[in-house]
Amino acid sequence: MGETDRPESVYLDSNCFIDWAQGTGSAREAESMLRAAKAGYVRLYTSTVTLAEARGTTASVHRLHIRTLLQEPYITLVEVTRRVGLIANDITAEKPKIKGLDAIHLGCAIFARAEMYVSRNFRDFAPGDVYNGVLLRMPFEFGGEGLFPASEVD
After folding, report:
1. Which is nearest to 97 in space by CA: 131, 64, 70, 67?
2. What is the rounded CA–CA span in Å between residue 98 and residue 111?
3. CB–CB of 107/85 below 8 Å?
4. Which residues of 76-110 are buried (b: 16+ CB within 10 A; e: fewer)?
5. Which of 18, 30, 68, 145 has the most CB atoms lying inside 10 A of its own CB?
6. Kind and range of the H or E run holding 93
7. Is there a contact between 116 and 130 (Cβ–Cβ < 8 Å)?
8. Helix, strand, or coil here: 120?
9. Residue 6 DSSP SS3
């Protein structure tokens, strides 16, 4: 699997949605992924855990934006099932630094057969690694910088 700016399927970690809602961190990159998914260029996945984690700040407007976004049909929510739990357990056994919700998110990406796992959280594993067929990457703009003009996903 080679690194590409136009993957067919991407799993977005909670921090991507938080950045998008707050306009911080990798907001531009998250926005381009959301626009690409809405246009049908990429399948986006995230876990139902994101509903709990991606609350943004305590500002209700951030929470509302994220909750509304996660209801969009171009984002597939991966349920945390027994199978996902077992995959996450295997991850924690093989890579002891990857714990808790990070293992759940990566387990959901593996379960969904996402091509890439996109996150800013790489304390415990490295961008560029491939784990169980899923390429781990830092946030990037879909299709390369500037493919989509800057504007909010409606």
Report:
1. 131
2. 17
3. yes
4. ebbebeeebeebbeebbeebeebeebbbbbbbbbb
5. 30
6. helix 82-94
7. no
8. coil
9. coil
Considering only CA atoms, which of 122, 92, 126, 125 is closest in space to residue 107?
92
End-to-end CA separation in angstroms for the chain? 32
> What are the residues whose beta carbons fall under 8 Å from the beta carbon of 68, sequence distance 6 or more?
none
109 membership: H or E segment, kind and range = helix 100-111
Q: What is the pTM of this model?
A: 0.89
Q: 59 pLDDT exceeds 70?
A: no
For residue 13, give the nearest of 124, 118, 115 by alpha carbon: 118
Residue pair 48/101 in contact by the 8 Å Cβ criterion? no
Give tens-digit pLDDT for 108-148: 999 999 999 999 988 877 889 999 999 999 999 998 765 55
